[in-house]
Amino acid sequence: MYQPLAYRLRPKTLEDIVGQEHLVGPGKIIRRMVEANLLSSMILYGPPGTGKTSIASAIAGSTSFAFRMLNAATDTKKDLQIVAEEAKMSGTVILLLDEVHRLDKTKQDFLLPHLENGRIILIGATTENPYISINPAIRSRTQIFEVHPLTPEAIEMALDRALTAKDGFKDEDVILEQSAKRELAFVTNGDLRSALNALELAVRSTPKNEDGTILITKEIIQECTQQKGFSHDKNGDAHYDVISAFQKSIRGSDADAALHYLARLIEAGDLISICRRLLVIGYEDIGLANPAAASRTLDAVLAAERLGLPEARIPLSVAVLDLCLSPKSNSAYQSLDRALQDVKNGKATTIPNHLKDSHYKGAAALGRGLTYQYPHEFSDGWVAQQYLPDPLAHTRYYEPKFTGRYEQALAKRYEELHQKKSSSTK
């Protein structure tokens, strides 16, 4: 039966793993577990092809435990029961459960007691962020480890191994040009499985030269990958990382970084996320420092939505640079958050009588609105009177920032009013 190169080269020990040194390197957590023979259930999460299955296979190969593989989405509760029965007979089974975020409640409830007593050591694999996608009951019984995309250097090392390994191309005279190796290492974006699959396709589809060698050039690799060096899953965890980096780059006034992440989101075709995020940024990060920028951003977003991609990139680029290079202030929403916290903490106490509704018969008898002073009747449109409930009478939620001229003017007015209010109560 045909087995893909990536499957044939799957690591048998921790020493065979390429990359993920932060987990399996000397003195690191998973290596310590294996060397101490104190394995515990874990969840490995990260992009495809980064070594989750390889780590599970290597852990099993470094121990005497049986190793079984199931898929949470496609395998049934009965399949789990078979593994549990085997664990009862043999003592312990390491179970690699792929797509562990797809584990439904029935399978989860069956699995939990076996994780508790240690008969099954679960190694869950997922591309989704487990803190978002995995049930807390499973999370609480596992350690969570993130695996990272492999560096180009690590992928090159794995490609060299593939050319010399017995289960690879040791018995075939394959020459992988350096430029081809570099292309393969970069274009697969840290996905070793994709790199090995592309190498195998290149070798199997390239005829031998007259001297019996198989020469793999950069052009052949480009044909066998058909990639532009960019991949993006709109529903994946990495997508939210790009959005996060996009907003933080604008907040940090790094125009070049913001344009880079905008380009990635545009290449992914995710106009909805871009527009929504820009509107949030306009009010969250720019705010009172430059309110006009938020209005211009709305205009750019409306234009982008009407134009659609690819032309939408034009108004979007204007908005990104405008927001990036604008002064920043989060004072408005931070002020509201402080007020919300007081409300949540039970400080939403009785409204002063003079502010209560007085537009009904009998309100006067209840003392509603009797002492209210109408600001428009005073020369500068202001009169000293208490608006906050008594326990909060002297609370200040708004803490101005002085990063833009508009908010500087607001801050000056805010302080003037507070001083007048303080003077009137002395």
From TrEMBL:
Pfam families: AAA, AAA_assoc_2, MgsA_C. One of its GO terms (biological process) is DNA-templated DNA replication. InterPro entries: AAA+_ATPase, AAA_assoc_2, AAA_ATPase_RarA/MGS1/WRNIP1, ATPase_AAA_core, DNA_pol3_clamp-load_cplx_C, MgsA_C, P-loop_NTPase. Residues 38-150 form the AAA+ ATPase domain. The keyword Mitochondrion does not apply. It comes from the Bacteria. One of its GO terms (molecular function) is ATP binding. Keywords: ATP-binding, Nucleotide-binding. Belongs to the AAA ATPase family. RarA/MGS1/WRNIP1 subfamily. This is Recombination factor protein RarA.
